[in-house]
Write a structure and sequence with these properties.
Strand order of the largest sheet: 6-5-4-3-7
Distance between the termini: 137 Å
Number of strands: 10
Structural class: alpha+beta
Length: 375
């Protein structure tokens, strides 16, 4: 068997001397490849699957085994030549050296440039997010939300493009015919253009949704009549979680109405029912005192942007007038301010002798209380 593999005399010690470093190099390559693949897989699945799930471990083992076999197949026969053996087949040392100083250097250069571009993209996005969110005012907070949303999209798209192009270039250096891959990409693109018009519409709508700053992650919004907090904005979908914790997923192309309740600022609007017998000027003065005390109190005062407005009588009811007040607040704090304001209005009305009118049912006729008819 040895004569079929090698030419000339064979030394078992030399064979072992070549095998041990080769297997070690394959093992190190497999470990490194597995760690890199695990990092990429964690970024891909995130919290969807456990890192100890068979669905995660099986691909990692396959990648590690492929890396081990690949490195051993390339390095083994040149290692035999280094220790003085002459293998009959396989990659010879001269071929490996020639490839290393031509295609090998290009592969290394492609990998380094791709990594540098990925890092540069990440740094630029982080710099953009930092510049946009600089400051402590409300505008800085809003700019920071928009920057994080745009930065996430730019980072994902740029990473996919860089990794895809670098992979094709590396495959070409390994003499792999990438023409079928490019042809397949073209066919897929054509199929997407003809058969996935809804998908294209969703992506285009999502791009302009983010570009025009219509809504951001963390905003309180109502989409197609469903209200909640925006948890994620993707190029194809927007994810909304309502007050009960239910997650709603809307395709961007299917959004017909979008009401953003926390863009730049919000209003806490409260309708107060007032008796027709109470003086409206006195009621207005009491309401202004309540608003001033709320604005002077912490932490509510830090959420209020302007003094409370008493808009006046908004409607006449059958048994009460409706006076409307509103307070301009920072985004997403209108609910907390409104609840606190209602509680303070109740206490202030009780302290000032004002009443909250309510309809009184007609007095029921009790037996024996009705008048007798005439004779």
């Amino acid at each position: 068997m040895w004569r079929r593999l090698f030419e000339g005399p064979i030394d078992i010690g030399a064979v072992l001397l070549a095998l041990v470093p080769t297997v070690l190099a394959g093992y190190l390559a497999a470990r490194t490849t597995r760690r890199l693949a695990a990092a990429g897989l964690r970024a891909l699945v995130r919290d969807t699957l456990s890192h100890t799930s068979p669905l995660v471990l099986a691909p990692l083992r396959l990648v590690a085994a492929a890396a081990f076999i690949f490195v051993v197949a390339i390095v083994l026969f040149p290692a035999f030549e280094i220790v003085g053996l002459r293998p009959r087949s396989g990659i010879h040392l001269r071929q490996l050296a020639a490839w290393s100083f031509s295609s090998g250097l290009r592969v290394v250069l492609i990998v380094i440039l791709a990594y540098a571009l990925l890092r540069m993209t990440t740094l630029l996005v982080r710099r953009f997010e930092h510049e946009m969110s600089a400051g402590s005012d409300l505008d800085a907070i809003e700019r920071g939300k928009r920057a994080r949303t745009l930065g996430s999209v730019v980072r994902n798209v740029a990473s996919a493009l860089i990794i895809g192009v670098a992979t094709l270039m590396v495959l070409r250096e390994f003499q792999v015919d990438i023409a079928p891959v490019l042809t397949g990409v073209g066919i897929v693109g054509l199929a997407v253009g003809f058969g996935a018009q809804t998908l294209v519409r969703d992506i285009i709508s999502g791009f302009f949704l983010i570009l025009e700053n219509q809504v951001r992650v963390g905003d309180s919004a109502a989409i197609n009549g469903t209200g909640g907090t925006v948890e994620a904005i993707n190029l194809r979908t927007i994810i909304l979680r309502d007050l009960e914790g239910t997650v709603h997923v809307f395709p961007n192309g299917g959004i017909t109405t979008l009401a953003n309740k926390s863009l730049d600022y919000s209003y806490a609007v409260v309708d107060v029912r007032v008796s027709y017998y109470d003086d409206t000027e006195r009621v207005t003065a009491v309401l202004r005192e309540v608003g001033a005390s709320l604005q002077a109190d912490r932490p509510f005062g830090s959420w209020i942007l302007e003094p409370m407005e008493v808009l006046g009588i908004d409607a006449f009811g059958e048994w009460a007038m409706v006076m409307r007040v509103r307070i301009k607040t920072v985004p997403q704090q209108q609910g907390e301010i409104g609840r606190e304001l209602r509680g303070r209005i109740v206490k202030a009305f009780e302290a000032n002798g004002l009443t909250f009118p309510f309809p009184v049912a007609a007095t029921a006729v009790r037996p024996g209380n009705h008048q007798k008819e005439g004779p």
